[in-house]
Structures are given as structure tokens and as C-alpha cells.
């Protein structure tokens, strides 16, 4: 169950079955996920990765995270994914990554 003062404050809890839009759109999880995905990239690689290919992301927006992980050039650690899922359960003002 998701509780909030109004419908605009309801945030989806991220799971591996959640669409990647839920992950990237989450105010705490999105930036942390983007940072983890771009960590270790060169300056030339990072801007395209952070901006992303909007057409590709639009096509993949409803893809479950567990499927999206298969498209990544390197795997994200399971512990990181679990931490991000925990962060999605905490109100964004309290999230700490």
C-alpha cells in the first residue's frame, strides 16, 4: 500500500519487475541509479550516458528493470539494486545513498 497526503505524492516502490521509468523518475533512486551507471565512464562517455538516447529510453520505458539489466554493458551489483529498492520505500526527503 502506498500512502501520501495526496495522489501527486505517491511514488512507486521500485522492484525488479517495475518499469525502468519508475526507477529513473523516482526523486532519490533516479539520480543514484544514474550515478552508479555512469561511474567509471570517461568524460567523453558520461555526457551521452547521463543525457541518454531519448528514443531508446522511450522505447524501453515500460521494460522491467530485470530485463533492462540485460542490456547494460556491465552488471550492476545486486547489493546496489537492493539498496536502491530500499531507497524507493523511504520518502524522498529521508533517502540517503
Query: Given the helix and strand composition, which structural class is it?
Result: mainly alpha
- Dominant shape: globular
Helix content: 40-55%
DSSP, total strands: 0
List the helices and strands and how they pair.
Blueprint: H1 20-25, H2 29-38, H3 46-51, H4 54-60, H5 65-68, H6 78-89
Helix pairs in contact: 2-6
Task: Describe the structure concisely.
The protein is mostly helical and 97 residues long. The protein has helices at residues 20-25, 29-38, 46-51, 54-60, 65-68, 78-89.
Question: How would you describe the overall organization of this protein?
Answer:
By secondary structure, the chain is mostly helical. It has helices at 20-25, 29-38, 46-51, 54-60, 65-68, 78-89. The protein has one domain. The protein contains six helices and no strands. The longest helix is centred in the last third of the chain and has 12 residues, at 78-89. It is globular, with a radius of gyration of 14 Å.
Task: List descriptors.
6 helices; 97 residues; mainly alpha
